[in-house]
Amino acid sequence: MQDALRGLESAQRVEQERALQAVRAVLPAAAAELEAARGWCERVLDAESPCWASVCGVFRLGQLVLEQQFGRGAAVEDDALAKRQWQSLMERGALLYMEHTEARVRQAAMAALAAVVRCDGDDQVLRRALPLLLSSVERNLPRKVSNGSAEGEGDASSGVRSATESADTGWHALETSLNGAAECVVALSAAGVVRLAPDLERLFAGEALQHCRRHPNRFVREADLRLVESVLRALTQLPDDAAARRTVTHVADSSLAIIAAGLADNWSQVRYMASKAARALYQVQRQSGAQHGDRIDRVLVPRMCLNRHYVAEGVRQYSQENWVHIFGHSGRELLAVHIRDVMEYFEAESEADNHAVREAACQSIAEVFTKLDAPIVAPYVSRMLRVLMECFRDDSWPVRDCACTACASMVRQFGVGDLEAAQVDALYELWFAHCADNIPSVRQHAAEAVVSVAVALGEAHVQRVLSYLGPALRRALQQSSDAYYSESDATPFDAQRKLARDNDPHLHTGQTMYSCGSLAPKMRPARLRVGCMNCAFSRPPEPWEETDGALMVWGQLVGHGYAQRCVADGSWACVVRELALLAGFAQVTSMLTTLWTQVALAVPHLPLNALQEHQEALVAALRRARRCGHARTESAATDAARALRARLGVL
């Protein structure tokens, strides 16, 4: 034991872990060894200026002893006097060091305090500690808290700043105090929850938790929600009586604003914790039979619905599970009941500063209009279509991508009868422009969207797409040549030439560098832009990109039964005799990959005479593409050859 105690004084984490492992091996220990360990803990805690590592070791040792020597379910329950001595020591030390400048000490102190409560589930310890923890929270709140939602994001405390150094922000012990209170509440027994219910109710009567939801530091907001969630889960253990229902109603009303703010937070960790708190709120609300469920639904249902499409996978999956767990098969009916609140919230979130939120808003709008009955959503079609068209011009390409698909879904379902001609023209301009976007998936989705809309709306709209198709297909013929790809080159598809260009320092030195997410703070919704540019980060499309998108449109038209029209207007001949032979620029292989992918999909639908007419040129181009040296192009050409063999028996 003495060697282990020396190891607990080490500032190195690995040494403390080894020491704790040694202690764990001898627990349950003899009374003499426990007394020696407790004496060491008292000497460290009572020292004038103890090393932070030693204090941290004391709390970690105390937590281990309380859980394995004296805790409920421990192998051996020792005498009551020793148990009370350890509990008293850890309680006194935790409250003494809960605002220590070192974060690891504060965290260990709160874990030890929770172990004291967990040891027998008694509420007396928490009854004494809770006012001190709340006092710590209030002392460490910012001196000035914004009335709006927190937008600025600060870093968590490093653990070495003094209270005077953080006077302007003052959150150095705020997170650990909130987390400590949450751990203690979780550790309560059912009887302890019943006795402590009035204290928990008073906790929500103050302003501290409401201030924390607006705190600029996201760790504090997360800890605030963790405390809310732990209290709500604890209240599920209350008996079914009038007093319990009053407590639940008061806590639910007070926590609603905190949870709602967390569900709309910019940080995914805060959203995730808010989602857990929302589940706890519904659970305690329904279990107690308390009233005001409709008011909770009005606030939380729109936010929970949107988070089912949030970009962070953990938030998205948990929100989807939450939806089923809480609402079962009544989710659609609930959305229909609160459709006005849902639409207003989606519209507001489509203008959020966070581009991931705007993306989720577009997906949510599309889902609601697809899954709810038409009479319910019809009054909101024009309004939501305007919202989506604003998102269609967003700086962020995932937002534009979602808006593109969502607009098509709404137009297919409700038509354009209620739209002005200028709005219809604007929609087609946006779809055609995104068929030339620099993001391949955006081009693909735009092509699918515009063709599906045209097919659904009828001949006039199909003709509109065909009128776009002819010139757009031929744009790649105007692509300027690249120095690495001369027209006279005998092997224009040589992979080594592309590799040389990609690594040419003259093309890349001194250019703007981008990393994952680096553009996110600069990406603005369309409403905040000035001037006539559609997108602050856009560039004029390359001719080959226009052709690439047009090839996708052509493939969609052929697949929807317009193969004869695509042959009659010369599009098929252009694809085979002109575009398939292109070379001389760096991105030609990308365009040819798209070309042969679309040909493979189109061959089963094209008239047999059209294939036979261009058979010789088609076979020659395919053989050339299958030996080009680029894996994706060769694979696409092989698929096209396989489809052609099935129709004509060649290759």
Verbal overview:
Residues 146-159 have a biased composition (Low complexity). With 651 residues, the protein is an all-alpha fold. Among the domains are: 351-457; 475-499 and 539-648, no CATH class. It contains 33 helices and no strands. Helix 7 (124-139) runs parallel beside helix 9 (190-205). It is elongated, with a radius of gyration of 33 Å. The N and C termini lie far apart (81 Å).
Number of helices: 33
C-alpha geometry = elongated
Q: What structural class do the secondary elements suggest? A: mainly alpha
| Total E-strand runs | 0
Low-confidence stretches: 144-170, 483-494, 512-522, 529-537
Strand content: under 5%
Main sheet characteristics: none
Distance linking N and C termini:
81 Å
| Cα gyration radius (Å) | 33 Å
Average pLDDT metric: 84
Helix fraction bin:
55-70%
Q: What keywords describe this structure?
A:
single chain, 651 residues, mainly alpha, HEAT, ARM-like
